[in-house]
Design a protein that fits this description.
single chain, 6-stranded mixed beta sheet, 5-stranded antiparallel beta sheet
């Protein structure tokens, strides 16, 4: 049998000796092999793995636009599995691989450390173009020299150690793309243990800019922040931080309903982390549609197309809808604007009015912190930034901005 580059020891077995599940794996692997062609290789391999949800994922050792080139068949299948289900775990069953000579091969597989590290390296590199762009924004808008550092580390403790070790080199650190709930503890620890400004922009940048937009939208709609009923769809890093900041600005906690992918976060739920438990509601609602009835403000930090025209129409008079899922909002601009004439609608996109974009905040927040020698970005600074940005939106629009947008009448208002 020809040598095959694999990540776990293999044992050659007869097809008749395989269990029904293992035969399914072999059949899937054989299928992908039959459809492969390797002009530069003396062999080709198909592999199949079984996920804990019962789905079979397969791949080959052929270069494919959908997978990283150069991976063995087993690792290609695992790469696709991890990409599709990042939190899935593998059952300890079989990986089936078929060589061109027809031999059936199987090997036990658990979450493979070598494979997971390979995937982590790919995922980390995938973030580099975005982070390089972020570094440019710091330089262009705030004149700050910024260096993007991508850390291939999933363990929060080890990530904290890496950042702490790097901290003496830098004047400030902007954390990016760390998922909840780990991001909360990572930022808290780093702020406590480092003596330079540290901010997780996914949390606080979004919170500051959206809060400034909220203050101005409430002014235009003639509503008081302490009276509004707020619905938040999404319960990740940005949603939690936005809601906390809105409370600091005057939104009453009892007037907030937060939803995650399973529905309303209420007192009957037993699957909640500490951050979600902050926003438990006792209101008799379980779905987003029920929560939207009579709401003054909707904040979406979730996924596209979860809000319907009917939901917007069920909101209170003069509603405010911030649909910030990117690139596609929770409800499209066209549907939202057609749903009712009294709406103020904002997205995270630059091709629609009322864009809510973090670039209005993070370069200048760090610039200010460094200029005044601050060792931390605290709550008072965030609130000051909210009010400063809200006030800035009311100033006359410079001619250069009108020229850039091919619009001579840009001004503060409902469709800024």
């Amino acid at each position: 049998m020809k040598k095959v580059d694999i990540i776990v020891p293999l044992t050659v077995v007869r097809y008749s000796e395989l269990s029904e599940t293992e035969r399914k794996l072999v059949d899937a692997a054989r299928s992908v092999t039959a459809n492969s062609y390797a002009p530069y290789s003396h062999f080709r391999v198909g592999a199949a793995i079984l996920l804990s949800n019962g789905e079979i994922i397969y791949g080959s050792n052929q270069e494919n636009a959908a997978y990283p080139s150069g991976l063995c068949a087993e690792r290609t299948a695992a790469f696709y599995a991890h990409s599709r289900y990042p939190d899935a775990t593998f059952e300890v069953i079989a990986v089936a691989a078929i060589d061109t000579d027809g031999s059936e091969i199987k090997a036990p597989i658990a979450p493979c450390g070598a494979c997971r590290q390979s995937l982590l390296e790919y995922e980390t590199l995938a973030g580099k173009p975005v982070m390089e762009g972020k570094a440019l924004l710091f330089k262009i808008f705030a004149g700050l020299d910024c260096f993007d550092l991508e850390v291939a580390q999933e363990d929060p403790e080890k990530f904290i150690e890496v950042v702490k070790a790097l901290a003496p080199t830098f004047g400030g650190i902007n954390l990016e793309d760390i998922k909840a709930p780990e991001c909360f503890e990572i930022e808290r620890r780093l702020k406590e243990e480092c003596d330079i400004p540290i901010m997780h922009d996914d949390q606080h940048g979004t919170a500051i800019i959206s809060a400034a937009g909220l203050l101005n939208a409430l002014e235009i709609q003639g509503k008081k922040i302490e009276d509004i009923r707020l619905v938040v769809n999404g319960a990740g890093a940005a949603a939690v931080s936005c809601t906390r900041l809105y409370i600091a600005l005057g939104v009453r906690r009892e007037n907030i309903v937060m939803c995650d992918s399973k529905g309303v976060i209420n007192s009957s739920r037993t699957d909640l982390n500490a951050q979600k438990r902050e926003f438990l509601t006792d209101r008799p609602v379980t779905t987003l549609a029920e929560a939207m009835v009579g709401a003054d403000v909707f904040l979406g930090l979730s996924v596209k197309d979860v809000v319907t025209t009917e939901m917007v129409q069920s909101m209170a008079e003069k509603p405010i809808v911030f649909a910030l899922a990117n690139p596609d909002p929770e409800i499209s601009y066209e549907k939202a604007m057609a749903s009712r004439p009294d709406i103020i609608f904002a997205t995270g996109r630059s091709d629609y009015p009322n864009q809510i974009n973090n670039v209005l905040g993070f370069p200048y927040i760090f610039r200010g912190a460094l200029d005044c020698g601050a060792t931390q970005i605290n709550e008072e600074m965030k609130l000051a930034a909210v009010h400063a940005i809200a006030d800035l939106a009311k100033l006359p629009v410079p001619p250069v901005v009108n020229t850039a947008y091919h619009n001579s009448v840009l001004h503060f208002g409902r469709n800024y």
